[in-house]
Design goal:
Helix content is 70%, strand content 4%. It is mainly alpha-helical. It has two domains: 63 residues, Winged helix-like DNA-binding domain superfamily/Winged helix DNA-binding domain (Arc Repressor Mutant, subunit A, Orthogonal Bundle); 138 residues, Four Helix Bundle (Hemerythrin (Met), subunit A) (Up-down Bundle). It has a three-stranded antiparallel sheet with strand order 1-3-2. A hairpin with a 3-residue loop joins strand 2 and strand 3. The protein is elongated.
Length: 228
């Protein structure tokens, strides 16, 4: 036992470590939806047998990030268009509530931090630094979740974001979308700084609709269905 009397956490198994690495590659956009996950290749690349690879893919399938198809192998999940649209709609509502709560009660220091984060992201977008912007984008949205002051809502929003992460990351693939995304963030930040709850929620919904639309264009599908 440790000095605090607690049992030290066990190290991850090979399968768990591989699942974590693959999840990071998927959610960062390095493995976009539809990418084939071949057991033999993954085993060779990670210097493991195929047994931990199979277990890692099973763990990822349970999270929804990977789709396992009978006799056809595994791929990074690509939900049916209707299902994906429903996921984006749920994400938009969760984030809209978070942004509204930020506008209503976010501490002054946190508001300044959010504005500074947004300004820094503007520089990344202007320089076309896609990977850096993607990472900063995750942190920006997580700041909205925590800034709302509702831990359970933040948990729900975070879990939904992780499920949609491959699609949100993949659509940030060009300079034009980076600049558009940053402008959409600007509307959210402006509303939060003005303590305008309704405007913050509306700007967030518009941002998620644009994100879904950008993914649809990239994937060769029409934009998001009209919200009811």
């Amino acid at each position: 036992m440790s000095r605090q009397g607690k049992t030290p956490a066990r190290p991850p198994t090979r399968a768990e470590a591989l699942a974590s690495a693959l999840a990071e590659a998927i959610t960062s956009g390095r493995m976009p939806p539809g990418t084939a996950l071949e057991e033999e290749r993954l085993a060779a690349e990670n210097d493991v047998s195929r047994t931990p690879v199979r277990e890692a893919l099973r763990l990822l399938a349970a999270t929804g990030l990977v789709e396992q198809r009978s006799r056809r192998g595994s791929v990074v999940a690509r939900p049916e268009p209707q299902r994906l649209s429903e996921m984006f709609e749920a994400m938009a509502e969760l984030e809209a509530v978070c942004a509204g709560l930020c506008a209503r009660g976010m501490a002054a220091k946190a508001r300044r931090s959010l504005a500074a984060r947004h300004a820094a992201m503007g520089r990344l977008a202007g320089e076309g630094r896609v990977e850096a912007y993607r990472a900063a984008n995750v942190a920006f949205h997580e700041a909205l979740y925590s800034g709302g002051g509702n831990a359970y809502l933040a948990e729900l929003a975070g879990a939904t974001r992780r499920r949609l992460a491959p699609f949100r990351a993949a659509q940030l693939g060009g300079a034009a979308r980076l600049l558009a995304s940053h402008a959409e963030h600007g509307a959210i930040v402006e509303a939060i700084l003005a303590a305008d709850e309704a405007a913050a929620a509306a700007a967030t919904r518009a941002h998620l609709a644009a994100t879904e639309g950008a993914w649809g264009v990239m994937a060769g599908r029409p934009g998001p269905a009209r919200r009811r």
